[in-house]
Amino acid sequence: MTVHNLYLFDRNGVCLHYSEWHRKKQAGIPKEEEYKLMYGMLFSIRSFVSKMSPLDMKDGFLAFQTSRYKLHYYETPTGIKVVMNTDLGVGSIRDVLHHIYSALYVELVVKNPLCPLGQTVQSELFRSRLDSYVRSLPFFSARAG
Amino acid sequence: WRGIVLPGTESCSELFTLTYGALVTQLCKDYENDEDVNKQLDKILFSDFLPRGYNIGVRLIEDFLARSNVGRCHDFRETADVIAKVAFKMYLGITPSITNWSPAGDEFSLILENNPLVDFVELPDNHSSLIYSNLLCGVLRGALEMVQMAVEAKFVQDTLKGDGVTEIRMRFIRRIEDNLPAGEE
Fold first, then answer.
1. Residues whose CB is less than 8 angstroms from the CB of residue A17 and which lie 6 or more positions away in sequence, other chains included
2. Residue of A nearest to B183 (CA)
């Protein structure tokens, strides 16, 4: 079981952070375009899911999976979006994504007045704490499985 | 800051931290050396607290969502409830009452019997025109804007000015729609 990578977006589509742990294949496009593609896709899926839902919406879009990986999605009412790609053995990790938002992004970036919002997070503390946290997850294995 | 002391109670500590941090950051941008910043902190003019409140609000909302786990509100009435019963409770330890709904449901008042922010505050003589509590209006406006609501918040009564209660009037202006960033198809 493993975590491949993680994206963090704000309400305007700015990619606040990207980290990679086990990614064997790249998208083949520049990173900036990859972020735009990811954000645009998420934006469309959210709207699609809500429109086509046969029942009243509760949480909205949560995840999708292919035969090789699963994309997990978590969004706050302020439009902060946490996207994590894992392998297929991982179940619902909303609590993990919420932790990344509340204990890492909010604590280390939002609450630091010297960290500007609306742009890529420069904080090394944030990057390293996030890295440690992901590596400590029970479904993260150092050896990609 | 002479003559004005912020309460050091547990529930106010985060608000205070954000307040102080935003203020100092702004001053550091405005003035080139620390000595001047210190002077500014000492003799600071609070004539325009509103923009500073807004800057606090845009960050405070994230802390609020992180800790309260409240989801999206479906309408302005739900928003009013969350502001009064969850947010005010969390940050200021009080629960204002919600009154005076407009017929259209787009305006309401928050009545604060006592305003903890001004518990230990006296307006010094040279700052008698200070709308100290104006910070709260900015905070509300900034916070709600981040959850896609454009609102107006203003004080209609203020105990610091001798009124019996503190009353904040909230007015819903419009919903701010999610937009795809420019250049996306």
1. A6, A7, A8, A120, A121, A126, A127, A130
2. A36
User: Nearest-CA distance from A87 to chain B in Å?
Assistant: 27
- Predicted confidence at residue B40, as pLDDT, reads 58
How many angstroms separate the CA of residue A124 from the nearest CA in chain B?
20
Whether A142 and chain B come into contact, CB under 8 Å, resolves to: no
What domains appear along chain A, each with residue ranges and CATH number? 3-136 (3.30.450.70)
User: How many cross-chain Cβ pairs, A to B, lie less than 8 Å apart?
Assistant: 66
Residue carrying the six token digits 């904080």: A123
Which chain A residues touch B17 with a CB distance below 8 Å? 111
Q: B146 and A12 in contact by Cβ < 8 A? A: no
Asked if the Cβ–Cβ distance from B180 to A40 is below 8 Å, we say: yes
Q: What is the mean pLDDT of chain A?
A: 93
Contact present, B95 and B66 (Cβ < 8 Å): no
* CA A113 vs CA A109, B32, B44: distances in Å: 8, 18, 19
Query: pTM for this one?
Result: 0.81
| CB B57 within 8 Å of CB B87 | no
Give the single-character DSSP code of A89. Answer: T
Q: How far apart are CA B69 and CA B64, in angstroms?
A: 8
Q: Give the residue from chain B lying closest to A40, CA to CA.
A: B184
Local confidence pLDDT in tens for the 185 residues of chain B? 333 444 444 445 556 656 665 666 676 677 766 666 655 554 444 445 556 778 889 999 999 999 998 998 989 999 999 999 999 999 888 999 999 999 999 999 999 987 776 665 666 665 555 556 777 888 899 999 999 999 999 888 888 777 888 999 999 999 998 777 655 44
Nearest to B147 among A77, A114, A117 (CB): A77
